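Before the break, one more example. Copy the sequence into your notebook; we will annotate it together after we see the structure.
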Amino acid sequence: MQTTHAPRAELSTQACDICRKRKVKCKAQSSGYSLSCLRCERLNLACTFALPSRTRGPKKRFLSDTQTQCPAPTVPHRTQDLCDRDLFKNIMQDYLDYIYPMVPLVHRPSFQKALQEDRDREDDGFLALTVAIAALVVATMASRFQAYQSDPGAIRFESRKDFVHACYQKIIGLRTSSYFDQLSFQKFAVSYLFLASFMQIGDQNWSRMLTVEAMQLARLLKMHRISEYTGLNCIEKQLRKKGFWVMFYGFVHGHLQNLHGERLTYLDPAALQAINPEDLMPLEVDDELIFENEVLAPETTEPCLVTGFIVHSRIFWAAMRDPGPSPIGGHCPCARANDTCLQIKHFQERLNCLQYLGLNMPSFLQMWEPTQAIVNDHDADERKKTVQLQLASIRANLHVTHIWLQSLILDQLEAAQSHPQRRSSTHQVVDLDQKSLWVEREKLSHHLFFVLFNFPRMSLEANGLHLANKVRDVVASLLGCPFPPEDPISKKAAEYIQLSTDVLSRLDSSEGMNTLHLQTWVDTDRIQG
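Here is what the structure looks like once it is written out:
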């Protein structure tokens, strides 16, 4: 008996459009009379062949033997024009190890994660941030720049100044016409990092201009108003508080040293009086404990880097005002300028407040805390050595700043006491005699040189030209010693001045002449006139 089979569906030589889209086999009608395939017929769909056909399989490539052995080329990183990628990441790590404690403008875990993901390939904002950080590291640490130049993926620049300017031109090229229409802390950080970079290489005019940009961004972000922090996550609050204080440091610098009157100011007297400094102090926890929606409590009593930043900020605040909320009936600078007695009282209070803060620092931040032995111990854990070096850098910055501010206030106090005209004032002030003032200067100089000769070299270098300029200011004040050469105070002052020449030759690594207190710009219209 012969078995009969059901008619077999035939495959089309070309699939219809519907079957191609669904990626299924296209079965033609066995009768051959219908123009639709079986699937389109069953689903009552229009069976069309309008889509263009493509060659099946990959395109044929004819490669030489050499080409077949080489991997496909990778897309170069956008920092490749500065240095190789491995070296660039080493520079980022140097920032975290050496400079971050003084300029903590990133959230470390988030920053490290973004670096691992190479986020700067696609994110212009993160690219600008990393390039600005690279500029600051190179500008600050001359010894590291020499190491970078000898690296196999060497930096392609002859000088630190060339590198910093190349970095700045790179980030300017990323800015579009709408750059300032959307603001963020990251954009502020980029401006601040470059103003600090130009200052570190002694390029004061560029630093002045970037300072104005950073001040404007800080004001627009309202970092000086704690009431404007509502709605920010925990990470952003911490970053903006730190951002406020690094801007405040510059504000105090300008207030006490604006010799030419050319610097704009970050805070006006009304804004300064409205600030309670404790509201704007960062949380005393490391970044690793701060997440977007929560802050964890520390599990150990290990020293925290933020503690040093907070103490440093309080020292700067004490140079301007008493701690706590604005005192009722406080006197603004313009009122003090018209009453020398008020001015003297103000400076005496500032000096007393700074001296008090020096006596009440945490033990691990004290000037006499030993660090050299730990940092130089080859058997010590590397992570522990890094933390100790970071703490040493913070302490060096903190104590040199503390000494420098007291020295500047002594200058102001001495000038005010020698003022020939004084208005009557209801405030009783007691002038410090000249001998007492110079005994105080001698004590400050002794503390300064203790720091310079007993702290690790890398902790001093991590503070860059900021530290060298402060040392220069303190020593320069000794040149005006009014006592006879045979007086013990004069002999001590001469000794410190002699010591400073060797110290400054090591600390001042700028590639040009120091022009911090000089007019370095030219009014071409005035010359032509």
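The longest strand covers residues 10-11. Residues 77-221 form one domain. Try to locate both features in your own notes.
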